[in-house]
Amino acid sequence: MRGERLDSFLRTQKAGPQTYESAKRKAYTAVAFGRPTSALTGNETIKQIPGTLVLPGGVPIIDKGFPIVGIGVGGAPDGRIDEAIATDVRKAMGY
């Protein structure tokens, strides 16, 4: 996700209907704040901002010190699994 533009989305046939929205919001939150969403879970202020989701599973891609893209993953039974997958995707992209 760049800004609020969704560039790519993948979903398995067995994924629940909520996974699209949760992954999108995690990606937005990660790029907007330049931090993994797991690092923001205790921030009550961010939770009030429309479009954000401060559950584990969102990671930013940082280039030259600036967040440029957010990767969001949703649907695993534990947000730590979502975040591990997002981190692996980021590494596979060379970041």
UniProtKB/TrEMBL annotation:
Superkingdom field: Bacteria
Lineage, uppermost ranks: Bacteria, Bacillati, Actinomycetota, Actinomycetes, Streptosporangiales
Naturally occurring in which organism (per UniProt): Actinomadura soli
Alphabetical list of Pfam families matching this protein: HbpS-like (PF03928)
Protein name: Heme-binding protein
